[in-house]
# Entry
Amino acid sequence: MIVGIDAGGTLIKVAYTENGSLHFTKYPIAEIERVATWINELENPVICVTGGKSGVLRSLLNKNSKEMVEFEATHRGVQFLLDRMGRAEDVYVVTNVGTGTSIHCIQNNMQERLGGTGVGGGTLVGLSHLLTGVTDYEEIVELASKGSRDRIDLKVKHIYEGKKPPIPGELTASNFGNDLFAVAGELSKEELLSTVVGLVGETVSTVSVLAARQCSSSTIIYIGSSFIHNSLLKEVVESYTILRGATPLFLENGEFSGAVGAMISL
Ligand code: ATP
Ligand code: MG
# Structure
């Protein structure tokens, strides 16, 4: 069995081939010992590990394993998954919305990290919990999908009252910037959570579009587990990226890019 593992800050992603077919699984980082036990019990596996927790995982393995730099693994994996989707992009930006967010330019078959932001999937979970007490990721995204941001966010058009704004009025002028003091006590979990998703999505897409100016392509490929079951985040990122003049693309199984890149390096 050929196994690629991306042990990130929050989730461990595993890609493996068995009898010629490709499989994906993921585990919370708290279950790193369980993943190690699974690998230790495999017969003759070939293993490559990447991600910030790769050192921790490798220290738990009783088998030989290769290690790969995360950004390189992600780049290789994205190329593989693009091919699988029948896409032919060769110059593009990759924005990986993991626990944090990392942005890369791919051209001439090389990747360069353009930057990132600490606003990412970890912010989504952390801020959501602080505001509503909800801890479960699936519950957070489910409730967020039912909420409205109207009472919490301030749009450009709200500031430019009775006057044509110099930028699209639908842009958010201030996330959580509406006049909240009067309504704070009556805001629902759904409203608060959808606004958190809005904050994360708009930050990630704005930073990506700005970073894309350093890359000769305005196609931005979004990956990372923060998009799992999170169609609201996808919608926010898609519409904001388009509004800012770039072209978004969500990669199928994109959250496994690092794991796939590690696997195909073997
Ligand atoms: P990093 O690359 O920054 O080290 P990571 O690789 O662990 O982190 P991802 O797995 O890409 O990051 O994404 C983690 C995010 O995915 C979480 O912060 C959360 O928003 C979201 N997420 C999706 N599914 C889950 C889940 N089952 N449990 C917790 N978070 C989840
Ligand atoms: Mg990661």
In short: The longest strand covers residues 11-18.
